[in-house]
Amino acid sequence: MVLSDQEPIGDELAWLLVPTADDAIDLGEYLTNDEEGLRYHGVALAVGFTDALVVFDPPFVWCPPVAPIPSTHRTTGDAIIQIEGFGEETLSYEATSKLVRMETVHVPAGTFSAVRIDMSFAISGRLNGQNISLSSRGSQWLAEGVGKVKETETFQGETSESELVSYALVPEPAAGTAAGATLLVLAALAAGRGRARGPLQFGATG
């Protein structure tokens, strides 16, 4: 994945991460990392012959700005699905993130000391007149000064794994970085044929 730009989603501006894999279903993920923590605002998806945008209101909090290890954090709200040419539907979502422990992670890009975050996510409601109930579970490993270096996910019984294969650090703070912030670079993950091509830098209180 590679950083595109800040774009509006919901009532906020978020950084857009665009996948580099040719067969990627998701067209981009919207993230912020600021005084409110590391938050996931939504995802753009390829749905058949059209595109859809899923907006989480409030955003799913992956990690608060300051949190002990271990600790568990829960977010609930609306999942607003906007399908191009078909309008908008609102479902409900519930997400949990657990900061588990620090682990040593070996990936193609190197060896990192990373915090493991276990996540669960469920979405339910009615979409296009049909009852919808989907859930996923997974883990992410975030390394200081680098970002996400590994990810596993189980969705509808199928498990996938992604690892960081390369990254580059941003030498200067991004515009809008909070004063006194710790710099966090969310480097892209390699998935399938995709390779990490660049970093995403945010300000995070620490």
Give a short overview.
With 206 residues, the chain is mostly beta strands.
Strand content: over 45%
How many domains make up the 3D coordinates? 1
Rg measurement, Å: 17 Å
Order of helices and strands: EEEEEEEEEEEEE
| Helix percentage | under 10%
Strand arrangement, major sheet: 1-2-3-4-5-6-7-8-9-10-11
How would you sum up the global shape? Answer: globular
What does the average pLDDT come to? 78
Major beta sheet, specifics? 11 strands, antiparallel
Total number of beta strands: 13
SS class: mainly beta
What does this structure look like?
- This protein has 206 residues and is mainly β.
- It has one domain.
- Helix content is 0%, strand content 67%.
- It is built from no helices and 13 strands.
- The strands form two sheets. An eleven-stranded antiparallel sheet has the order 1-2-3-4-5-6-7-8-9-10-11, with no helix packed on it. Strands 12-13 form a two-stranded antiparallel ribbon.
- Strand 9 and strand 10 (147-155) form a beta hairpin.
- The radius of gyration is 17 Å and the shape is globular.
- The two termini are 25 Å apart.
Q: Can you tag this structure with a few keywords?
A:
206 residues, mainly beta, two-stranded antiparallel ribbon
